[in-house]
Design brief:
The protein is an all-beta fold. The protein has strands at about 1-10, 20-40, 50-70, 75-85, 90, 100-105, 105-115. It has a five-stranded antiparallel beta sheet with strand order 1-2-3-4-7, with no helix packed on it. Strand 2 and strand 3 (about 50-70) form a beta hairpin.
């Protein structure tokens, strides 16, 4: 589970007076995350054991985004956005995790609604 809290800066290269407004931007985020593995595992002696490993944290990372919005009425717009976030978290290998880092990055798609006031 990753819950991002992000701040972004976006640029509208064609301006605000076009019917379709593409944009792109960059930002930074704080990513609150929790990861767990539960199940049956095999140890170094090939014995099967039941276990659970849990890690959580808050880590900072960057993001890039691009999208298109379509204004309608005077103060409203709708659109779609594609964003890629890049962040890593630290986990404790003594709990049985294979590596000491976990990848929190990925690609997401969002549908957006903007209301001006």
């Amino acid at each position: 589970r990753v819950v991002p809290l992000t701040a972004t800066i976006s640029v509208l290269p064609l301006g605000r007076d076009t019917a379709i407004q593409p944009y792109f931007g960059v930002g930074v985020g704080v990513f609150n995350w929790q990861y767990s593995e539960v199940g049956e595992f095999i140890d170094d002696n090939f014995d099967i054991f039941r276990g659970q490993a849990v890690a959580d944290g808050n880590d900072v990372g960057g993001l890039v985004l691009g999208g298109v919005r379509i204004p309608f009425a005077d103060r409203y717009s709708a659109g779609v956005e594609l964003r890629y976030q890049n962040a890593t978290g630290q986990v404790d290998t003594s709990q049985g995790f294979f590596s000491d880092r976990i990848d929190l990055g990925g690609l997401t798609t969002q549908f957006t609604v903007q209301i001006g006031f």
